[in-house]
Amino acid sequence: MYDAGLKNRREVLGADYVDNSIGNADSFNSEFQELVTRYCWGEVWSREGLTRRERSLINLGMISALNRPHELKLHVKGALNNGLTRDDIKEVLLQVMIYCGVPAAVDSFRVAREVLGHDNDR
């Protein structure tokens, strides 16, 4: 499961980010990195019940609701890698606004725009 997780993690989040996270692990967090790779990215992200695209949609909503901007930034990039569009991401964040509140959506839109960049289309 570790190898499957490493493959999934690299494909979604980017090899540079993942290799840096694992390469910078020390005695304090190396077990954490191994568990995240094996359990989260191997056991769960390898399941056939949802596509990567669907998992990204769900993750964006949950991470926004939990107000985890660092993880949101990472998963917006991953969502793009999994085929979501700017409009898909916008729709998720609008849904977050309704069910989790405007403050959660304000921060989430800000973080997403950092990743997506600003477009001049209005």
UniProtKB/TrEMBL annotation:
InterPro entries listed in its UniProt record: 4CMD/NDH-1_regulator, AhpD-like, CMD-like
GO molecular function per UniProt: peroxiredoxin activity
Domain Carboxymuconolactone decarboxylase-like: 31-114
Protein name: 4-carboxymuconolactone decarboxylase
